[in-house]
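Example record used in the benchmark description.
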Amino acid sequence: MLDKEIRQTIICLHSKGKSKREISRTLKVSRNTINNVLQQGADIPPRTIDNQGTEIMSVVRELFTRCTGNAVRVHEILKEEYNVDIAYSTLTRIIHDAHIRKPPKRFGEYVFEPGIEMQHDTSPHNILLGDKMVKAQCASLVLGYSRMLYVQYYQNFTRFEAKTFLKTALEYMRGVCQRCIFDNTSVIIASGSGADAVFAPEMNTFARMFGFEFIAHEINDSNRKGKVERPFHYVETNFLAGRTFACWDDLNLQALKWCQYSNNKEKRALGMTPECAYLQEKPCLIPLPEVLPPIYEHYQRLVDTNGFVNLDTNRYSAPEELIGRTLDVYKHPEEVRLFYNHKEIAVHKRLAGRRREKSKIPEHHIRRQRQKADKAASDSEAILRGYHDILDSYISNLKKHVRGRGRSAMNKLLNFKRTYPQDAFVAAVKQANHYGLFDLNRLEELIIKSVAGNFFNLSGD
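Model output (structure tokens):
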């Protein structure tokens, strides 16, 4: 590249009338270069690949490492800091020819015989549930041969949800493969990874019940379970696109219908639909157990002073006479069952996917002692009323001066009626009502005096 002094000399000689041929002979530069200088001026133009190939290559290598492999940013820095203006396609060709970027690793294809392998994985998806955006865990199971797909969503994905999902997925598949490939999730693995993974005892027990085994692939080898990895993007861009969901139950119901639709679409890799391929795989699957094991978790909870037990931030009602007692709580996928002394006392619908809510059975929190007292008071009052107008008036006034429903007062008044002579009882009630006397102990004294007066009058006669 010509330096600035030579470029200024060419322009100066040309301005003095020298011909381009003379300038070329004098300065030993081509006439094409002279034409370019006269067009561009004395300033040095941006460098190009053609005249600075080696230098640009070394700069690109340095910038590619500095920009962590972002070729767009390399292109911007070349223009901003090095005054190198090249096309982006040219830059990518330089990177490719110089082997600066490592070529993508080529993977083979895993092919499975019918009934040999199924693959399981989860992926977080953002979903509009009602009018609220929530983060849900999408759980998926795929049969390796037929590509049959089953998808469900959960707010959390613990071992309880994992067993719940796998049970429903195997019921949907109507059979079990010999092994289940998954990543190194702590939901299934207790320690280790890959070939050295130690599975949680409860998950091993679950697998033995259905006759398969869990296998964890090596870390960073997600292609090992590519048949379950690929559908997650399809779920996001097809199932979630343009659909609305009212609640978790509605979401999973629509997911089940979508799985049935997806499994009846032809797959290019299969040359048929998964449903058709499943017909070939079904005879090779391990049959489901005749009696499916129940999925549940057992807890012990104390009934609080409000008559509720707490489970997963939610509250479930229990009979109030059990306040302060410890109950056995069994959490099932759809229900919560409460037991006391090995006897079932309540069944609630599980508040799955919700937080800080209550499930209340109305019969649990009616105060039965008060109910009995109210019934006793009403029975005693019913016996007393209608016997005498004075007594009815006294009862109405008495209820205004006693606490609560007046059970004790009504029972005591009924006892007076049954114990003492009726004439003395009515006379004492009439006198107490006239003077506003509602102390039943004083009323009894009046009854006794009336009885005594009658007795002495009879003796005098």
